[in-house]
Amino acid sequence: MTEQDDSGPSAATVPAVSTKRKARRKRVFKGARLGFGGASTIDCIVKDISASGARIRLSTITPITGPLQLLLSDKERLDAEIIRQTGVELGLRFTSDQRPSMAPPPEVIEQVLTELESPWLSEVLSLLERADAYQEPDVHEAAAQLREAYDRLKVVVEGHVTTF
Predict the structure, then answer these.
(1) Structural domain of 133
(2) Are 79 and 134 found together in one domain?
(3) How would you class 81 by CB atoms within 10 Å of its CB: exposed for 0-12, middle for 13-18, buried for 19 or more?
(4) 89 and 123 housed in the same domain
(5) What are phi and psi of 18, to 5 degrees?
């Protein structure tokens, strides 16, 4: 089983923006197991992985439904769902916030979106609305412009980082 490192110029990753995926993928060829239906598991090969999903290959066409777990050889368990199946190849989306240990590091734009999704600015603006200074026209107008600019920036950044 081999894994290609993401640190050098020959790293095998696909940029998030060009493929319209939420996160960069890293090509791997690593044995794993797919757990489904309670205690059932089957062998699979992880062909590529990202923070949000993986592409796997089964040895035979197997009908699988419902929630499942990707069980990596290092004992890591990732809850997932099937988003695509073509023959023996499956596209998985991870359903928990757990980041796979072998996923490539996030792009800067992914980090920006994560920060924009945190509620800190909304909380600050809500707190400001309760302050006496908010009644002053300049403060009120600046706060409204900031909220509008923040909302617009979030939409634009989300357009560059779409889901897996």
Answers:
(1) 108-160
(2) no
(3) middle
(4) no
(5) -70, -25
> Tens digits of per-residue pLDDT, 4-56?
433 333 334 434 333 455 567 889 999 999 998 778 889 999 999 988 899 99
- Taking CB atoms within 8 Å and a gap of at least 24, the contacts of 1-8 are 1/29, 1/30, 1/31, 1/73, 2/28, 2/29, 2/30, 3/28, 3/29, 3/30, 3/102, 4/28, 6/104, 6/105
Pair 71, 150 in one domain: no
pLDDT tens digits for 73-100?
888 999 999 999 999 999 999 998 788 8
Asked whether residue 89 falls in the same domain as residue 120, the answer is no
pTM of the model: 0.57
